[in-house]
Amino acid sequence: MSFILNRLGICSSLLRFDAAKPKPISRLWAMAAPILLLLAVPAARAADWPQFLGPSRNGISTETGLLQSWTAQGPPTLWEHEIGAGYSGPVVNGGGLILFHRIAAEEVIERQDAATGKVVWRTAYASGYVDDYGKGDGPRSTPLIAEKRVFTLGPEGQLDCLDFDTGRILWKRALHEDYPVPKNFFGVGTSPILEDEKLLLNVGAKNAGIVAFDKDTGKELWRATDHAASYSSPVAATIGGRRQIFFFTRAGLVALDPASGAVQSSKPWRARIAASVNAATPLVIDDQVFISASYNTGALLLRFRDGEADELWKGDEIMSNHYSTSIHHNGFLYGFDGRQEERARFRCIELKTGKIRWTRERFGCGSMILAESRLIILSEDGDLVLVEATPESYREKARAHVLTKPCWAQIALSQGRLFARNDNKIICWNLKKE
Length: 434
Hints:
By secondary structure, this protein is mainly beta.
């Protein structure tokens, strides 16, 4: 409690009451009410979408008053315009939207006005990345907005830190020059996370699998493991009073101490074939961690106690996420099961047991957000779909074809505005009720 008050600039002595002079309950509430109101202030920032998978990196939004259906043309469009290539998701903070895309031979970082789409600033640098599999030459990693900074990671491994207000580059590093990183299938695709003033990444080099950088200078602070890089993004959580960073690397799940980089636990989890990837982000639910991969690998649910991880269940026929992260709601997981190339299924499973509750066949992959007990889904084919998050059955409330495929970037929701992109267009819709 004192830590929260200190972060808010409130003296903890305001909460000290003289036991020898008890005060009436009404007076205690009167004294506490302003403090409780201030404690609620950080929750208001949940309207931002500053990083991959949103404020808590779990695909969940706390926004309310959203549309419960829309027409075949989709929700009301606020603005749209053409953009460059890439699968990097838009992120939003305080009314400013950051877009990371590829135009000709440059990787471009833009701040736009989230309400209008107007460009506020633009920063670019040369890029020679060419995808070996013809999947596009744009960035894959979603930017991070934190502490008035923007962090981006290009497909060639260029890590940039920019000033959020001006776009000025504060520092940059060429990770694939600084570290001996083997070439990955589709370039670099993990999204950075900021924890305890440190920028953390699965770099993927020998003896530098996971690296912490000083957020102000880019200087290396610690390194850990020799795990190759995956396309999964890390997530931070406190379990049993212990702060941990969970990485789903090329080799499997790793839990580290963010202060020192000390490995607290690990669990091998990857496909037996080399032509495979781990891409979904670990999902933390209380003291449990869910990971999933395709390529005959499947899902695994672990419970963490005293630093040890115990298997609760696992299986390849339950929820095998190719690249999209599942979402948890009221004891159930909702996600895309199966390979993207084979038209993945959309599915609901019970978290406790792994029991399949329902399946929508050949749905295809996509990205999604949970808000007001509904799943807002952008399918890879470009359909914007609204589905009730209920284990009873698949209940579709709305569907509209809004973009051409492929739509592989994560969508974002901020202040009632929904942002989605493909490899040549970005659209902003108004999801607020009239």
